[in-house]
Amino acid sequence: MREFIDQAEAAGLRITEDPAQLVPPGFLVQFQSATALTLDGWELGTRVLAVVPNSGDHGRSADELVALVNELLTLVDSDGPVTAASVQLPNDPTPLPALSVPLNIT
What we know:
Blueprint: H1 2-10, E1 15-16, E2 26-37, E3 41-51, H2 58-73, E4 83-87, E5 96-105
Parallel strand pairs: 1-2
Antiparallel strand pairs: 2-3, 3-5, 4-5
């Protein structure tokens, strides 16, 4: 997972696996599952959350989220449908708008 994050950072994305380090707009990577692959190690199931500040304007938030997801999808292909989500950061009780992109990493 670290290799993916390093590649995304090198491409200019603000991305972290630590919710305390996320500064929206940016991406939060969350581990979901691990599957053993025959002879090839493991496949990690993750979700990459595109997160934007809560502006109070749903249309603006949606536009910002779509733009973020499009940036991510220039690097990788989603392994499932992109779905709506929200993220609550440790230092802020207000849920932030997000889109969840499933991604399997080998």
